[in-house]
């Protein structure tokens, strides 16, 4: 059976509504791990010193990708919103980071807006 090779990234600073940082990390982690299991994705660790199965710092991921030059199928993110600051601040780095993958997937297709319906 064909298995995709991928990496997932969690933003520990992203907060949604009134949830704590820990709840937001857990929300991302559960959604991503469920997606990984349901879509038969093999998660790759690029760095032997990496503590988690996922990355939390886009710059560190980019650095490791440049060092290892692995052929990877998919970069998984919870939503586009979790990386908006990085994408807006470092558009060139985002393009380089994306270029290491055949596809970038978001577990949630819609943008979640914590201000939706506010005043």
Structure description:
This protein has 119 residues and is of the alpha/beta class. It has one domain. It is built from four helices and four strands. A four-stranded parallel sheet has the order 2-1-3-4, with helices on both faces. Mean pLDDT is 87; it is low at 110-119.
Summary tags:
globular, 18% strand, 119 residues, 4 helices, 4-stranded parallel β-sheet, single chain
Mean pLDDT: 87
Q: Approximately how much helix is present in the residues?
A: 25-40%
Order of helices and strands: EHEHEHHE
Shape: globular
**Number of E-type strands:** 4
Unreliable spans are: 110-119
Structural class: alpha/beta
The main sheet orders its strands as: 2-1-3-4
| Count of discrete alpha- or pi-helical segments spanning 4 or more residues | 4
In total, the number of domains comes to 1
Distance between the termini: 51 Å
* Major sheet size, sense and barrel closure: 4 strands, parallel
Rg result: 14 Å
β-strand percent reads 15-25%
């Amino acid at each position: 059976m064909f298995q995709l090779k991928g990496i997932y990234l969690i933003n520990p600073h992203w907060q949604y509504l009134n949830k704590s940082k820990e709840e937001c990390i857990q929300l991302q982690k559960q959604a991503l791990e469920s997606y990984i299991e349901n879509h038969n994705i093999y998660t790759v660790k690029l760095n032997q010193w990496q503590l988690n199965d996922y990355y939390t710092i886009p710059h560190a991921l980019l650095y490791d990708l440049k060092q290892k030059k692995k052929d990877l199928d998919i970069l998984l993110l919870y939503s586009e919103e979790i990386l908006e600051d990085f994408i807006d601040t470092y558009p060139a780095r985002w393009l380089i980071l994306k270029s290491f993958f055949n596809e970038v997937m978001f577990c949630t297709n819609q943008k979640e807006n914590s201000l939706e319906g506010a005043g």
